[in-house]
């Protein structure tokens, strides 16, 4: 594995304050959140935001709005058919792998294969309905694997924040520029797997970047405790990392 499967650190975090400015839309039957840039700032490119297990919620909407403020149309598809997790509803010891395999009701799996069609339909929607030809993809935790799986479907540049579930073969097949934001403390993407990923990316030959942020844990790019100076810096710097990477390679 280039990164381990999701674990307990994937289901903790802090809800951020702010008023999202995007809108709820439908992509076929898929619910989605769409953040659109001001016309004067639009750069003609899009960011596919592939979420962690919390899906479309306050924090992810605010990050999508930030991408829009930087000129990108940004869409977050609902990967979980309304079954995303909620911070205030999780019990200690929650089995995230069981939830991925079966969903909350036992019949709504969130396996990579189940999510694939949602990501593909969203990419096709960006191209056909929105006329987008330059697509960046930002995958957070659970979402990183889907970015890796769908480079072949029209993703031009990628960004991972604290990735989980990505296999070595998926990383080797990632044939566009890739930037990774990593946490110092992360059992899902620990130092040994981060170093292994660096070797794979170097041997592969496409442009890559791995930034390591000190004093933060898995999930910091979306769910950081913003009262901590170091956590706030890491979250904001990881976002700037993504935008700079997209601006450079799109």
Automatic annotation (TrEMBL):
UniProt keyword Amino-acid biosynthesis, yes or no: no
Keywords of this entry: Hydrolase
Pfam annotation, one family: DLH
Sample GO molecular function, one term: hydrolase activity
Presence of keyword RNA-binding: no
Positions of the Dienelactone hydrolase domain: 30-248
InterPro entries registered for this protein in UniProt: AB_hydrolase_fold, Dienelactn_hydro
Protein name: Dienelactone hydrolase
């Amino acid at each position: 594995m280039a990164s381990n499967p999701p674990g307990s650190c994937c289901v903790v975090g802090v809800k951020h304050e702010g008023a999202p400015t995007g809108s709820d839309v439908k992509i076929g039957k898929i619910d989605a959140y769409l953040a659109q840039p001001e016309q004067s700032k639009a750069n003609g490119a899009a960011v596919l935001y592939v979420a962690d297990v919390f899906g479309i919620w306050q924090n992810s909407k605010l990050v999508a709005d930030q991408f829009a403020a930087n000129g990108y149309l940004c869409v977050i598809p609902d990967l979980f058919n309304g079954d995303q997790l909620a911070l205030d509803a999780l019990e200690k010891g929650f089995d995230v792998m069981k939830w991925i395999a079966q969903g909350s009701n036992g019949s709504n799996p969130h396996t990579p294969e189940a999510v694939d069609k949602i990501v593909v339909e969203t990419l096709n929607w960006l191209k056909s309905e929105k006329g987008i030809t330059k697509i960046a993809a930002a995958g957070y935790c659970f979402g990183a694997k889907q970015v890796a799986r769908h480079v072949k479907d029209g993703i031009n540049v990628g960004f991972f924040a604290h990735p989980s579930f990505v296999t070595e073969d998926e990383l080797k097949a990632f044939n566009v520029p890739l930037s990774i934001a990593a946490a110092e403390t992360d059992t899902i993407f620990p130092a040994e797997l981060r170093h292994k990923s660096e070797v794979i990316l170097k041997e592969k030959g496409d442009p890559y970047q791995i930034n390591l942020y000190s004093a933060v844990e898995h999930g910091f790019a979306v769910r950081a405790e913003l009262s901590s100076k170091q956590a706030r810096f890491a979250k904001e710097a990881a976002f700037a990392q993504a935008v700079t990477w997209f601006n450079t390679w799109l």
